[in-house]
Amino acid sequence: MHLLSRPFRAAAAPAAGRLDALLQQTATASTTPGPTAVWRGTLQDGAAITAEGIVHAELTTKYRDALTYWRRAAAGTEPSFEGGLHDVFGRWQRTRLYELGGRLKLDRPFEPGEPLAGELAEWCKRTRALEIGGGPHPAVCEAAWTSAVAIDPLSDGFAAEGLLPTSAGNVTQICAPGEAIPLAAGTIDLVIAENCLDHVVDPWRVLSEIKRLLVPGGHLWLLVDLMHHRDHLHPHPFTQDSATKMLTHAGFTFVQADIWDAHSHPEAFGQMRALLRCP
């Protein structure tokens, strides 16, 4: 895996009419968003349940496949997690937080595998953080925050299957979709969305929720694979162009962004890693 990165400058937004047309083309090319749901129960007997209490068959299949993957990872049968799910995932998450600290121009003495330290650790202690779709080991588990919330429609499944790390006890876990987050507006300083925007039912609604929740000047730390491949787990693939347009149209300002050769999905050709600011 190559970890090369190349910076890019977000292009100036075209005239409103042209941008709306481009975004409409992107939306038309994507899977039409449907209702959201959350997982209730164990892997064996659970299902995806909508807000109306109805079993959603398509999302049940999607969420069961995702939960099965994480069960395999915990059992050591996924090659990416041969060192143990939480040891490997925790190291990844700390490394990504150190990367975030660099973009925020915070001193952060980097010791792989060690807890966060320096100005980055102190900044976290003053920060109210929210993570969307962080899986069974959210990045917010790897630091001490003023407050930390992890939102995931699979949270109940992770808990039922014993997949959450011991450090998750310091994080408020809420089983909810990123499209409908049960928190008050303007109460979050940092939102983390790592490898989740292409998984959600409706990325537009997720970005709208992020913007609603962030304080003015708050930050979004975003990682998203870049690819053309689409499947039931990744219904909204992004390219650099489409991701940039969507984020700009949603009202976010790019602070710093890079395109990495490293990526999560085998069909991806890169990954956008971006720090954005809410107006």
Write the layout of secondary structure elements.
Layout: E1 5-7, H1 16-29, E2 37-40, E3 47-50, H2 57-75, H3 85-103, H4 118-125, E4 128-132, E5 147-151, H5 155-160, E6 172-174, E7 188-194, H6 203-213, E8 214-226, H7 240-249, E9 253-260, E10 270-277
Parallel strand pairs: 4-5, 4-7, 5-6, 7-8
Antiparallel strand pairs: 1-9, 2-3, 8-10, 9-10
Number of strands: 10
N/C terminus separation: 36 Å
Mean of residue pLDDT values:
89
Our estimate of the beta-strand percent is 15-25%
Based on CA atoms alone, the radius of gyration comes out at 18 Å
- Assign an overall shape: globular
Uncertain parts: 11-31
Q: Helix amount, in percent?
A: 25-40%
Helix and strand succession? EHEEHHHEEHEEHEHEE
Largest sheet: 8 strands, mixed
Derived from helix and strand composition plus strand pairing, the structural class reads alpha/beta
Q: What's the oligomerization state?
A: single chain
* Strands side by side in the biggest sheet: 1-9-10-8-7-4-5-6
Helix tally? 7
Describe this structure in words.
With 279 residues, the protein is α/β, with parallel strands linked by helices. It is built from seven helices and ten strands. It has an eight-stranded mixed beta sheet. A two-stranded antiparallel ribbon has the order 2-3. Strand 2 and strand 3 (47-50) form a beta hairpin. Helix 1 packs across helix 7 (240-249). The two termini are 36 Å apart. The relative contact order is 0.15.
What labels would you give this structure?
279 residues, eight-stranded mixed beta sheet, two-stranded antiparallel ribbon, 10 strands, 31% helix, globular
